[in-house]
Amino acid sequence: MHRTRVTVVEDALDANNTIAAANRADFDREGVRVVNFMSAPGAGKTTLLERVVRDLPGVRVGVLEGDVQGSMDADRLASLHVPVTQLNTDPSFGGECHLDANMVRSAIPALPLADIDLLVIENVGNLVCPAEFRVGEDVRVMVCSVTEGEDKPLKYPLMFRTCELVLINKIDLLPHLDYDLERLMYNIDQVHPDVERMTVSARTGEGVEAWRDWLTAVATREPAGVA
Ligand SMILES: Nc1nc2c(ncn2[C@@H]2O[C@H](COP(=O)(O)OP(=O)(O)OP(=O)(O)O)[C@@H](O)[C@H]2O)c(=O)[nH]1
Ligand SMILES: [Mg+2]
User: Fold this and answer.
1) Could you say which ligand is closest to the alpha carbon of residue 68?
2) Are 44 and 143 in contact (CB under 8 A)?
3) CA nearest to 138, candidates 118, 109, 124, 122
4) For residue 113, how far is the Cα from the chain centroid?
5) N or C: which end of the chain has fewer CB within 10 A?
6) CA 227 – ligand 2 centroid, Å
7) Could you give the CA distance from residue 106 to residue 213 in angstroms, rounded to a whole number?
8) Residue 10: what pLDDT?
9) What 3-state DSSP class applies to 84?
């Protein structure tokens, strides 16, 4: 019983990786770099995008918004005149708590790939499942807000381990919280010592310039090959 279950899970992840590779090949063909943007619900993904998507110098950005249902985040970003495509997991995919490669594949015909250089995929808010499914991205970025507690790297290590950048958001709230930033850094070191980190506040704009520069640099990267 146990062996059967493990095999099924491995097969499912293999199938996902095959489709992710096909997505990646399509993105590469169009010269589009792709960011898989993940966090717990409400950590600040959409707000951090609102801060930067309009002024990445020389970079045409598009967003694929993943949500279980609704289009509130997509509407927020579309109001900034950025091309946004909504992908809901509720109607067609059973309300999944993450995006997988097949879901993203289904959205590719609706993406303006010829008109963008960078696609940011805002994943469904969740610290567990999104980390398990590649979708064809070049890089993974996660947001970890200071209201979530310093222990999250130890409790959700895969998310932290598979990211290239951790954005530590809502630092404007630090004076009001009993939060130990050094403890968070120490805990990140336990699971991914080399990961890049930035402390930011989408509210005040502190640190946002470094985030903007980082994202701009991703758009000009050479394709790294199929993930
Ligand atoms: N104080 C403070 N609040 C913030 C900051 N960034 C985001 N928020 C607030 O946090 C709430 C959630 O922000 P969102 O950007 O919607 O978070 P999200 O990660 O996109 O949420 P989901 O898409 O639902 O997972 C909103 O009320 C934001 O205004 C910040 O830096 N400081
Ligand atoms: Mg959001």
Assistant:
1) 1
2) yes
3) 118
4) 18
5) N
6) 25
7) 31
8) 67
9) strand
- Both tokens of 219, joined, read 């758009």
List per-residue pLDDT tens for the chain, 227 residues long: 455 455 566 677 889 999 999 999 999 999 999 999 999 999 999 999 999 999 899 999 999 999 999 999 999 999 999 999 999 998 778 899 999 999 999 999 999 999 999 999 999 999 999 999 999 999 999 999 999 999 999 999 999 999 999 999 999 999 999 999 999 999 999 999 999 999 999 999 999 999 999 999 999 988 765 44
Which residues make Cβ contacts (< 8 Å) with residue 134, sequence separation at least 6?
16, 17, 20, 36, 101, 227
Q: Using CA atoms, how far apart are residues 196 and 166, in angstroms rounded to an integer?
A: 6
List all residues whose CB is within 6 A of at least one atom of ligand 1: 39, 41-47, 73, 125, 169-170, 172-173, 201-203
d(CA 33, CA 109): 17
Query: How many other C-beta atoms are found inside a 10 Å radius of the C-beta of residue 10?
Result: 10
Nearest residue by C-alpha to atom 8 in ligand 1: 44
- Which residue minimizes the CA distance to atom 1 of ligand 1? 170
What are the backbone angles phi and psi of residue 81, rounded to the nearest 5°? Answer: 65, 40
- State the pLDDT at residue 227: 46
| Helix (H) or strand (E) segment spanning residue 36 | strand 33-39
* Beta-strand runs (E) in 101-225: 118-122, 139-145, 165-169, 196-199
DSSP 129: G
